[in-house]
Amino acid sequence: MSATAPDWLNNGDNAWQLTAATLVGMQSVPGLVVLYAGIVKTKWAVNSAFMALYAFAMVLVVWVIYGYEMGFGGTMIPGLVGIPKPVLSIHTELEQAILPVANIEAAFPKATMVYFQFVFAAITVVITAGAFLGRMSFKAWMIYVPLWITFSYTIGAFSIWGGGWAFQRGVIDYSGGYVIHVSSGTAGFVGAWWIGPRLKHDRENFTPHNILLVMVGAGLLWLGWNGFNGGDPYTASPDAGAAVLNTNLATAVSLLVWTILDIIFFKKPSVIGSVQGMITGLVAITPAAGVVAGWGAIIIGVCSGSLPWLTMNILAKKFQIFHAVDDTLGVFHTHLVAGVTGGFLVGIFATAEGCAAFALTTPGGAIEGNGVQIGWQLAGALFIIGWNVVWTSLIMGFIKYVCRVPLRLSDEELIMGDDALHGEVAYTFADVIEGSVPGVPQPGPDEEMAMSPQKTKETATPPEITTDNGGEHSGESH
What we know:
The chain is an all-alpha fold. Helix content is about 65%, strand content about 5%. The protein has one domain: Ammonium transporter fold, CATH 1.10.3430.10.
């Protein structure tokens, strides 16, 4: 006996949409989980990874109880937000999905659409965490995540994707350059100001403790982006293939441009710098992936590899605000600047054929004679920035003054890191050898010799390489 499939179901489309959603989910867990764990100091590896893991779980619960319908359901506040209600009944999960693009019926069930949109919401708040690493209270983070998804993310999603004011005026955001990256970059920067800085020593010396782990996370991000942008036509269409190709092309160009700039100005290529260039390429092509031609993707890649590099490595050193705000991983540059760059350029390079393939009524960008599109793209970016400045501040203020939960950990907790916060450390075997785990007896001379028979002055651990990066320049050392 086999289950009966409804006439509207396309097995291929449903399979691709679920696969694309899983690829996007893997960008958060394990992608950003391991990237965050590797890019921070050893004492913050567990806490940083746990912040990402917690957010992924919390967002899903919020999303099915009321978040999805706020972003993609019937209108509650015209132009801004949908009616909050749950997506929990089996009837609702099995019914045919309605695409947010042009109100088209999908060839897969609503459950698939809800999960696909969830992984986008989840990675947005996980990206925001990159600005808070190394000092935010985990209890404050637990409160922040559901509030920010509720009052910030859903409004951006409805406004641009769910039929809101920006959607109605033709603002193009193919897969989240504004909804995801500009919002997370803005919220990260504003939230970092509210939380306050890391310890002075940590900010001046925050060398990534495991660059190979960072590269593993970066690889998961890059390949996972095939689902990020390839899944947004909501069908296994030619436009999905074009989006995947353009995504990888822009990302490769951006990585190369960033690396070349590092070599020119810092005299050596930087692995962390190349990862930053990869991320800015992925971010900048996201609002444009399926509506620009390959040559447009190359131009976007050149700009995303250079403009965020300039703001991170040159301008951030000249303007006091970047010294006052401790944005740990520089999400302002890699997500806000890169997202605005891509959103602006799609207003120029969007093709009429690409927009039609994505079911947009917009006739394309300036190259198609529609120069007004640039203005609407800027308006969309300013709306997302303004909304997040206000609501991130309100949420942080609520946590601090109403909930009475400190946003920043105490100096004593910041000195100890993971062990003080979770009673767990990332690398227990090495720490036991060094006798640095509280409550664990140090090995005697015979045990120490057995564990490390070759331990001599010549094999002692070299001093840690220090940098002044603090998330404000691209390289691990220059």
